[in-house]
Each structure stands twice: as structure tokens, then as C-alpha cells.
């Protein structure tokens, strides 16, 4: 292999892989070999893979190889030959769709999710599917069906959830790209805890299947290790779809490259560490402020602000919504098979209904929550804040009894540490989750970059600038010691 192609192929970025494919310095088959070998090596510890698609993946990789060699099949497509890990929640027709639940252990998908179709049509090589918690109803990834998925940086800790398997797979070197979904932070939480990048698109940007395509809290989106890679995948999966009435027209195409640090010169960025009443660990707060200071050094005007959200506002809004959207399904599962479901699903069903108000009262409250954010973003180009209030939570705990503490204060539920929920409530804002540093336990911390409604490009500009001036683990050559 030529000397200018990295030997650590498992951590090659998607954009670098495409460049090496085009110059024929690297074959898609070689890259697939490398990421699958890495998965086989570390899966006994990480446990992020539900299913390998070896036969289909190698057929796609060989087809891609022929395209780059000009031997038929047409010109290379946008993701030609790039391995992509798919969240198991995204159905693939004819394959199992288990949702991390023993209740669905034998279910088979009847349709394929539109983003899976688009990845395959763009030449992406879907080579494995990743773990989730049961019904994707937790911010950690464990289940009676699949066991515990662990953080590659420190296996004692959680990889987050519900796209935890995708986050862990990226961190462990199983793929340069992965799919995720986010109804309360399920892309951003694992991005934070695994030190990767994830994007919660604004509502309707990326198409989905009914009925959840109609749920404004719910978003499917891309995950990767670099900002450019996440933009690459977002450009493939975004855009209107004939079967999703909320999918936005016209399709937004993000720039292929950004101006790095220069992209934030003169930009006004708000920094808010607590988002109202969140209790934030001092390490998380310090890393967030350090990242914001890097943006200031790059030429942005960064101002620390407060936002008048209360814990009661956020809790009441999301519990009302979850009770209406997911509560009955979870409660039915718990009642029909209490011994088969995970304890956290029962806790979720109970919590979703507690403190809920009527739907119309909930909608009015959601309007008040966005009004606060809208006023702030009218004065700034973007907002930055922590992704999670604590560096991590342990992997083996389901948090139905154990409580998280921040600075000695016990939280009501571990989700009180998820600073992601307000931006599902404010569903039209784009949010890019990026790394902000490391905690003493060796687990990464993360920061959210929040843009004005449907202003996706700005959050990517800010993320690209931060990546340049404050390179995170993979750009700096650091890897999990597995």
C-alpha cells in the first residue's frame, strides 16, 4: 500500500477513503477488510453489533472497486465503497427488526427505511447493524436481548443511547459513518460519550417512516468522526421523499468543504452552560468553556448568556409528549410481558405519564420554551452548550434504582443529565454535537452547536472551525485502548 495512505485504516475518515479510492491507492475491499477485522477484534468487549452483513457488503465493495477501476457499473457515486454502520431501528426489508426487545425477537421488517435506501443507492456499503436499548427508550444501550454495549474509551462506562451501538462502533473503528435517530438526544448523547460527531437535523429535513415521521420530536440523522464526514452522509440522506408528508422541499445541500477557523470570524455565538436549571459537572462546564474560548480565538464573538428555562417546563413538556406518543405502547408491552421487558422500559412508561398535562397545555408550553430560545437566537448566530451534564454514566446500571449525582446533588432521573431534550421540543433547530474534551475517567465530553430554525449550514461552519482550532481525539491521532 502506498506510504501516503494511513495504515490505521479502521480510523480512516470517509472523505479520506473516497480520495484514496479515486486515486486507486486503496480498494473498498481493503477498507471493508480493515473495519470488519477491527470489529471482530474488539466486539467481545464493546458489543455494539447486532448483525453482520458480510455477503452483501463484500458484493457492494467489489462493485465499488470495479467502478473506481472504470470496468463497468457507471461512475462512482457519493458514498461509493464507504462502510456504513446502520442502527438496527432503521428497518431493512426481509431482515429482523427486533428493537432490542425479546417481544420482537422474531419480527421481520416488511419495508426498508428511506435513509437505508439512499445510502445503498449512493454506493455506501452497509456492513453491520448496531445495538439499541429496548424500544430505543433509554439514554444508555443495554437489553435482555443483546446485553450491554460499552464505551470503547472506558468499558466500565456507557456508550449512551439510544444510538449507542452506532456511537460505540464509530469510536471503536468499525466504520467511518453510521446512522442514528434522536427523539430526546439519541444521536447527541452517544456522540458526546463516544467522542464522535452527530447531527440532529431540523424536523422534516431527513425523511422517515410513518407514524414517527409525523412526530416533531423525532429525527433521523448522520453520525461520524469528523464534521465533513457527517455533512457527507447528511447530503445523501436528506431531501424530500414521496411517502413523507413533512419532508422539506427543496433539498438542502451542505457545502463539501468549509473554511475552517475562518468560517466563524465575526460570528456572534452565545454560550450557555446550564440551559436554565441543569446541574452541570465542573469538568463538563470547564470543557464547554474551553471549546467556546477556542471559537473566540478563531475570531468569533462569544458571549455567555442565561436562558429562562426551568426544570419544570422541560419535564412537563417532554413527559406530556412522550405519554401521548410512546407511553401507551411501552405500557402495553410492560403489562403483557413484565418478565420479558427491561426494568427501564417499565420506568419509562411510568415516568412518561407522571406530571403530564393535556396535549394542548403541552403544546402551549412548547411554544413558551421555543420563544425563549427564539429570542436568544435572534441576537446570535448560534448557541453552544453541553450535551450531557455529566461526563458519563456506568454501563451496567439501568438507573431504575440508582441515581446520578452532580456535585453531590442527587438527580431525580439520569435523564436530568441529558441537556438534549430542549432541542427536541424546539424541533426545527439544527443541532450538531461535537466533542469538547475528556473527563478524568477517560470518557469524552461533548458540546451542542444549536442554530436558528433550518439554518443547518451555520452549525456545520461552527463545528468545522472548532475541529480545526481544537482537534478532537481522532484528528489528533488518539484512539481507544482496546
From TrEMBL:
GO terms for molecular function: catalytic activity. Gene3D superfamilies: Amidase signature (AS) domain (3.90.1300.10). It comes from the Bacteria. Residues 30-459 form the Amidase domain. It holds the Pfam family Amidase. This is Amidase. It comes from Yinghuangia soli. Belongs to the amidase family.
Amino acid at each position: 500500500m502506498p506510504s501516503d495512505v494511513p495504515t490505521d485504516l479502521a480510523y480512516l475518515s470517509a472523505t479520506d477513503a473516497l480520495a484514496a479510492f479515486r486515486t486507486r491507492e486503496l480498494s473498498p475491499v481493503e477498507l471493508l477488510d480493515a473495519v470488519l477485522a477491527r470489529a471482530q477484534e474488539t466486539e467481545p468487549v464493546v458489543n455494539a453489533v447486532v448483525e453482520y452483513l458480510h455477503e452483501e457488503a463484500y458484493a457492494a465493495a467489489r462493485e465499488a472497486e470495479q467502478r473506481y477501476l472504470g470496468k463497468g457499473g457507471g461512475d462512482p457515486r457519493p458514498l461509493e465503497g464507504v462502510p456504513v454502520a446502520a442502527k438496527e431501528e432503521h428497518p431493512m426489508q426481509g431482515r429482523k427488526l427486533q428493537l432490542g426487545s425479546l417481544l420482537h425477537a422474531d419480527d421481520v421488517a416488511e419495508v426498508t427505511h428511506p435513509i437505508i435506501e439512499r445510502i445503498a443507492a449512493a454506493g455506501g456499503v452497509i456492513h453491520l447493524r448496531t445495538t439499541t436499548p429496548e424500544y430505543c427508550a433509554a439514554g444508555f444501550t443495554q437489553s435482555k436481548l443483546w446485553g450491554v454495549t460499552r464505551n470503547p474509551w472506558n468499558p466500565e462506562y456507557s456508550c449512551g443511547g439510544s444510538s449507542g451501538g452506532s456511537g460505540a462502533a464509530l469510536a471503536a473503528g468499525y466504520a467511518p459513518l453510521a446512522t442514528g435517530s434522536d427523539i430526546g438526544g439519541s444521536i447527541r448523547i452517544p456522540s458526546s460519550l463516544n467522542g464522535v460527531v452527530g447531527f440532529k437535523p431540523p424536523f422534516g429535513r431527513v425523511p422517515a417512516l410513518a407514524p414517527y415521521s409525523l412526530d416533531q420530536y423525532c429525527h433521523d440523522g448522520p453520525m461520524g468522526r469528523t464534521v465533513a464526514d457527517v455533512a457527507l452522509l447528511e447530503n445523501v440522506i436528506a431531501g424530500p421523499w414521496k411517502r413523507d408528508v413533512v419532508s422539506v422541499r427543496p433539498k438542502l445541500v451542505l457545502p463539501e468543504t468549509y473554511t475552517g477557523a475562518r468560517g466563524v470570524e465575526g460570528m456572534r455565538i452565545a454560550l450557555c452552560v446550564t440551559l436554565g436549571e441543569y446541574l452541570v459537572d465542573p469538568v463538563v462546564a470547564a470543557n464547554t468553556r474551553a471549546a467556546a474560548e477556542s471559537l473566540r480565538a478563531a475570531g468569533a464573538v462569544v458571549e455567555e448568556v442565561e436562558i429562562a428555562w426551568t426544570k419544570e417546563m422541560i419535564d412537563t413538556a417532554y413527559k406530556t409528549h412522550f405519554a401521548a406518543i410512546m407511553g401507551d405502547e411501552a405500557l402495553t408491552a410492560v403489562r403483557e410481558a413484565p418478565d420479558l421487558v427491561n426494568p427501564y422500559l417499565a420506568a419509562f412508561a411510568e415516568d412518561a405519564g407522571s406530571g403530564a398535562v393535556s396535549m394542548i397545555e403541552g403544546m402551549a408550553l412548547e411554544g413558551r420554551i421555543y420563544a425563549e430560545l427564539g429570542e436568544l437566537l435572534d441576537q446570535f448566530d448560534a448557541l453552544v452548550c453541553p450535551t450531557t451534564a455529566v461526563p458519563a454514566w456506568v454501563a451496567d446500571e439501568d438507573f431504575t434504582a440508582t441515581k446520578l449525582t452532580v456535585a453531590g446533588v442527587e438527580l431525580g432521573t439520569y435523564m436530568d443529565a441529558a441537556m438534549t431534550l430542549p432541542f427536541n421540543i424546539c424541533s426545527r433547530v439544527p443541532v450538531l454535537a461535537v466533542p469538547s474534551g475528556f473527563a478524568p475517567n477517560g470518557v469524552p465530553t461533548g458540546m451542542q452547536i444549536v442554530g436558528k430554525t433550518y439554518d443547518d449550514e451555520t452549525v456545520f461552519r461552527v463545528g468545522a472551525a472548532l475541529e480545526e482550532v481544537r482537534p478532537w481525539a481522532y484528528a489528533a491521532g488518539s484512539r481507544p485502548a482496546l
